[in-house]
Amino acid sequence: MNITIRLLGLALALVPPAGMSAAERFTDELWNAARPVYEKTLQHPFLTGLADGTLPRSRFEFYLLQDSHYLRAFGQALSVLASKAPREEWAIALNEHAADALKTERQLHESILASYGLTRSAIANAVVAPSNHAYTSHLLAAVHQRPFAEGLAAVLPCYWVYWEVGKALKKKGSKNPDYQRWIDQYAASEYGKVVRQVLDMMDAEAASLDPRSRQAAKHLFVLSARYEYMFWDMAWREEKWVP
Fold it and tell me: What is the pTM of this model?
């Protein structure tokens, strides 16, 4: 689901395109379309358990193992998306995000998993769960097969939903130090700046889209938001393949 990235000093913070006020941002449309999914996500027992510390460790461990595999595919998706970026600074940023998805975020996962007694080999050999396989396949198909704007819309929930979840859980805190580390990562102001940069990319690109392309992007955004919910539900159930 989403990534702590060092800021490169790139001038990515964009003003709304000409004729577009802040109230008319395309990203507002995207969030409103996915709002019911997000509200249900916040109520999921996996996330409420993170906040109150009651989430069983086995389920958090399962999540971290699956997310380690997800991040590899997410990094690949960002690299493909970068190759299609219409602006050089966007391509540079997305490639950096891809690298940091594997270096920074996975480092947190592996440090916690190591404290649980799991080796790098055990992490690498964990079986990818069905919902994880479906989500990563969806992302990779979107960035390979669809135009840049639609691919960006598909990856955006991984950035944005994690930021919103992080901020919401930060208000509650967690008694479990590992869970609190996870919350702090996604609630951090530095991470929020990165999310805002990608939101600005989406709004700038959407200004030139026709209605059909905007609708296609919105469809992919909502679909990815649903997969974000499914990812936490997968971890809660410790989802397995049918034998």
Answer: 0.89
Any idea which residues carry the catalytic annotation? Answer: 158, 228
Domain ranges (residues) in the chain: 25-237
For Cα atoms 31, 238, 174, give the angle at the middle one, nearest 5 degrees.
65
Average pLDDT value for residue range 69-87: 96
Q: Which residues of 202-234 are buried (b: 16+ CB within 10 A; e: fewer)?
A: bbbbbeebeeebbebbbebbbbbbbbbbbbbbb
Structure token pair of residue 123: 């992490």
CA-to-CA distance for 5 and 201, rounded, in angstroms? 16
Mention the CATH class of domain 25-237: mainly alpha
CB 192 within 8 A of CB 163: yes
Q: What confidence tens digit (pLDDT) does each residue in 174-230 have?
A: 999 999 999 999 999 999 988 999 999 999 999 999 999 999 999 999 999 999 999
Distance CA 47, CA 200 (A): 28
